[in-house]
């Protein structure tokens, strides 16, 4: 493996999505793909230093995952709290797989990054008397350290502030654009991206942005499952692009299922309403149909245990009772608290005919957050020179086997600033040569394959997994993939290139990687729950699984005991 961010790079696969050749091109110093907290923070920091930045986003600027975040941003700001205590809680939640230097970076740089976000214009809830930031508490935290905005609309406020700042800075924006593949030069260095703009205008169809640095901030991959809290745009595009470019991904088996997602019926699919962990942090109780608080006695923090433990507790109780949901009871809050502290959740409940003031909310776990992703060092550099990753698409080592609540927005802030600093430091390096574009060799799956992938993954690789369920999922996914490849190799035919087929193809690749890793990890750890391997095995499995895509379209899986990134600058090892 060659060093990230330097003259060498991981060997590309030569695989790219089947698509028309670019019909137009732009030039920039850095391309940021995604418009959430991670991407827009990188863009602002780079633009402030004079870099020419282009932001590419799949829908509108505000349509990513950030605006859906309810709980808040975790940071050691309160009296008596310290970065060390935040670090300790994060390591416990990560169940032995967090990279401690990465976590220490997060918790020590986090408070400053949050203050700089506030300086950008984000307005957090404050005490009317003292003006101090109000801090809530969520699962896994032993202190109140969650800064929130609008009660339960933190993501929406952060998104508003960053979008206003980006528009004011005059940064080049390309909305309604699906990024397809990475461009590289003859030396394997990043040279930009290809993308498809949806809609009419001076930029339409497939084009390219040429740049020596590309930052993936594409968010998650929740749409790989039938039910998720993720928006429709979260189809794993960044991870799939990185794999085709030859980059490594890690820890993809650790998908966090949020314990309390509003249950809207057995047939409900797609993006479902989230009921923030902050509701439990304020004292709501999980109960079964008989009103029993079943988490009491299962963990010292009961309903405020780390998310993997609560999700497992709910799943067990549902299995015992033969039901498909439990309840979150916050009736004791009263109408005023619901309206002032949780107005977004209250409105969502009422929209679905539920009044949390007078009745418990039906909830069940649903796919929520990918703790793994494109493997990076502490500067966001991947194993492909000039390619960076930040936010949910990245695996920085912070989350380990299970993300601690409200660490995700903080991770986006902290590592975005680090990426911007690294991009700017490399600005004087020689620009890459002309892009070398291989012939398209990636057969596309039909648009309806998206729903097949989702149902396969929900049945075989959801909250509860086993060798049999994962083998069944792997077989079904391989048949979908192989059928498309065989037709392409035999007849040169593939599904019509369009957004829907590109998304289906990306979801299929991400699903195959997730299942391959989940099959290899023969233990239960964090949010990876193997019912046939119920115990944690630190002797064999306190290590990471790293996956890359080979030029033969197969997956290569290896294990590593830690962040073994090689030397980068100056010959000294650099993971931060």
List the helices and strands and how they pair.
Layout: E1 25-27, E2 30-33, H1 37-48, E3 53-56, E4 73-74, H2 83-93, H3 100-120, E5 135-136, E6 146-147, H4 154-168, E7 172-174, E8 177-184, E9 190-197, E10 205-210, E11 213-216, E12 227-228, H5 237-244, E13 249-250, E14 255-262, E15 270-271, H6 277-281, E16 285-287, H7 307-321, E17 326-329, H8 335-341, H9 343-351, E18 361-370, E19 373-375, E20 387-389, E21 394-395, H10 407-425, H11 449-460, H12 467-491, H13 499-520, H14 538-541, E22 544-549, E23 555-560
Parallel strand pairs: 1-10, 2-3, 2-11, 3-7, 11-20, 12-15, 19-21
Antiparallel strand pairs: 4-6, 5-6, 8-9, 9-10, 13-19, 13-22, 14-18, 16-17, 17-18, 22-23
Major sheet attributes: 5 strands, parallel
Low-confidence blocks of residues: 1-10, 566-576
How does CATH name the architecture of the largest domain? 3-Layer(bba) Sandwich
Percent of residues in β-strands: 15-25%
Biggest β-sheet: strands ordered side by side in the sheet: 7-3-2-11-20
Radius of gyration: 22 Å
**Coarse structural class:** alpha/beta
Task: Classify the fold: give the CATH topology of the largest domain.
Answer: FAD/NAD(P)-binding domain
CATH class of the largest domain: Alpha Beta
What is the helix content? Answer: 25-40%
The tally of structural domains comes to: 3
Number of DSSP helices? 14
Number of strands: 23
- Straight-line N-to-C gap: 18 Å
């Amino acid at each position: 493996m060659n060093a990230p961010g330097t003259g060498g790079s991981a060997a590309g696969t030569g695989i790219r999505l089947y698509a028309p050749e670019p019909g137009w091109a732009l030039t920039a110093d850095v391309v940021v793909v995604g418009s959430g907290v991670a991407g827009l923070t990188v863009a602002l920091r780079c633009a402030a230093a004079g870099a020419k930045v282009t932001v590419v986003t799949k829908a509108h600027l505000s349509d990513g995952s950030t605006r859906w975040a309810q709980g808040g941003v975790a940071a050691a700001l309160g009296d008596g709290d310290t970065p060390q205590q935040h670090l300790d809680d994060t390591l416990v939640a990560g169940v032995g797989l967090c990279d401690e230097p990465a976590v220490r970076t997060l918790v020590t740089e986090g408070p400053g990054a949050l203050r700089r976000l506030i300086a950008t214009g984000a307005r957090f809830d404050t005490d009317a008397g003292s003006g101090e930031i109000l801090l809530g508490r969520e699962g896994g935290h032993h202190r109140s350290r969650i800064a929130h905005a609008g009660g339960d609309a933190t993501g929406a406020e952060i998104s508003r502030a960053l979008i206003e700042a980006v528009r004011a800075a005059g940064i080049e924006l390309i909305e309604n654009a699906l990024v397809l593949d990475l461009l590289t030069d003859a030396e394997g260095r990043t040279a930009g991206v290809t993308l498809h703009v949806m809609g009419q205008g001076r930029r339409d169809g497939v084009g390219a942005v040429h740049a020596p640095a590309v930052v993936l901030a594409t968010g998650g991959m929740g749409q790989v499952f039938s039910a998720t809290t993720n928006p429709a745009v979260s189809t794993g595009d960044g991870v799939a692009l990185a794999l085709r470019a030859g980059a490594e991904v890690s820890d993809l088996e650790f998908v966090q299922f949020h314990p309390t997602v509003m249950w809207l019926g057995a047939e409900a699919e797609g993006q479902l309403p989230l009921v923030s962990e902050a509701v439990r942090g304020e004292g709501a109780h999980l109960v079964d149909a008989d009103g029993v608080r079943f988490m009491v006695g299962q963990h010292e923090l009961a309903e405020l245990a780390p998310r993997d433990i609560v999700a497992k507790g709910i799943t067990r109780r549902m299995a015992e009772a033969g039901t498909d949901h439990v309840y979150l009871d916050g009736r004791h809050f009263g109408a005023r608290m619901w309206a002032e502290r949780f107005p977004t959740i209250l409105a969502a409940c009422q929209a679905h005919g539920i009044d949390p003031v007078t009745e418990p909310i039906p909830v069940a776990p649903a796919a929520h957050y990918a703790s793994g992703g494109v493997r990076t060092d502490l500067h966001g550099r991947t194993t492909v020179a000039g390619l960076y990753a930040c936010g949910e698409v990245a695996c920085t080592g912070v989350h380990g086997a299970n993300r601690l609540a409200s660490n995700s927005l903080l991770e986006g802030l902290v590592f975005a600033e680090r990426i911007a600093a690294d991009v700017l430091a490399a600005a004087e390096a020689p620009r890459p040569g002309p892009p070398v574009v291989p012939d398209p060799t990636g057969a596309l799956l039909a648009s309806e394959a998206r729903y097949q992938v989702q149902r396969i993954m929900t049945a075989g690789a959801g909250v509860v997994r086993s060798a049999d369920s994962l083998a069944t999922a792997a077989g079904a996914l391989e048949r979908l993939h192989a059928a498309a490849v065989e037709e392409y190799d035999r007849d040169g035919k593939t599904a019509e290139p369009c957004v829907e087929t590109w998304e289906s193809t990306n979801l299929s690749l991400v699903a195959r990687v997730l299942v391959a890793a989940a099959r290899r990890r023969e233990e239960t750890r964090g949010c990876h729950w193997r019912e046939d391997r119920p115990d944690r095995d630190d002797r064999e499995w306190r290590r990471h699984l790293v996956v890359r895509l080979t030029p033969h379209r197969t997956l290569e899986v290896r294990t590593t005991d830690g962040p073994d990134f090689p030397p980068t600058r100056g010959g000294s090892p650099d993971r931060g």
